[in-house]
């Protein structure tokens, strides 16, 4: 089945195809026609299933029919749990709308950074991708008004609830018109998702697709643009801030591995180096401890990028990128093994940006890069 058979306009199909999507993924085949027919949707879909494009594409089609918007009123609201997802989703909107005649402005807003630039950027925004707390701040200061929203998307709903956003979401619901189309995406159908279904949805179509078997599809990718001299503290900030209890960090050399370990240990994080200059005994010991979660961080060279199999390793961090695009796949493949999900995070130095583009292109990946200059990491 092709995108053209899903009820999309010729222009949208052309644009989607030009962006490298030749055939729809299962979730897209199910969601797109229902969305276009105006139904509310509750979809159970994992990251990696293609869920983002499943709502981005029909939303873009809907927005081809223009609607008069008052100043600072948005038409589409996408609620997401994290800053990273906000940036990523806004990026997908930008990419998939780039060739359309009718320009569409989307904006990501999230907490942890200054609110002023977000307020100033609000003019002419039709699609707002937001984390709940920051969105409420923006509505309170009249920077945005939700009374003309005709499309609500809730993405990674289970994560939103796990992070305790329920109350914020209810406050947001009270500002939305009842006459709207809503779609919710969640990895699981929890009790809270069920409650939302009865409270906020009109007779939704429930869609569930079987899991995608491809291992790379289960990896959640993130990339941060970090100045070389800030990489050390930024790594510690990530590990502490996100309570990462088992992380494999890749670096370019044995010496760098030793240095990174030293700094982690000085900052109270249990870490061991793993590279070719260490004795076999040290290496075996390091692996045993890491697998048993007796140490939190293993800092390794590409020696560990192939074959190392750790059950349900949740995080891989590229402190430095590998030279070969193939090694990138091997490194990130250490996570999301045997059916579990994992996150692969890359810290991109300013002089690595071009190389990162090459790596993505060679591996058919598209990963938005997140700026980090405004993140305060002094205490790390
Ligand atoms: P998501 O589950 O939305 O995070 O998407 C996972 C990955 O699949 C992203 O890298 C998308 O760019 C990619 N993707 C989504 N839909 C398609 C498609 N129809 N064809 C090829 N790649 C896709």
Protein described:
- The protein has 380 residues and is of the alpha/beta class.
- It folds into 2 domains: 3-212, P-loop containing nucleotide triphosphate hydrolases (Rossmann fold, 3-Layer(aba) Sandwich); 214-371, P-loop containing nucleotide triphosphate hydrolases (Rossmann fold).
- It has 14 helices and 14 strands.
- The protein has helices at 10-18, 26-36, 51-62, 83-97, 116-120, 132-140, 157-162, 166-175, 191-200, 231-241, 254-266, 280-291, 325-332, 353-363; strands spanning 41-44, 76-79, 106-109, 127-130, 151-154, 181-186, 205-208, 219-225, 247-250, 271-274, 297-300, 315-318, 342-348, 369-371.
- The strands form 2 sheets. It has a 7-stranded parallel beta sheet, sandwiched between helices. The chain has a 7-stranded parallel beta sheet with strand order 10-11-9-12-13-8-14, with helices on both faces.
- α13 (325-332) crosses α14 (353-363).
- The longest helix is centred in the first third of the chain and has 15 residues, at 83-97.
- It starts with 9 loop residues before the first helix and ends in a 9-residue tail after the last strand.
- 40% of the residues are buried.
- Residues 211-216 have low confidence and may be disordered.
- Bound molecules: adenosine monophosphate.
Largest sheet: 7 strands, parallel
Mean pLDDT: 89
Termini separation:
51 Å
Tell me which CATH architecture of the largest domain applies here. Answer: 3-Layer(aba) Sandwich
Helix percent reads 25-40%
Low-confidence stretches: 211-216
Determine the CATH superfamily of the largest domain: P-loop containing nucleotide triphosphate hydrolases
Order of strands across the main sheet: 3-4-2-5-6-1-7
Count of structural domains: 2
| Global shape | globular
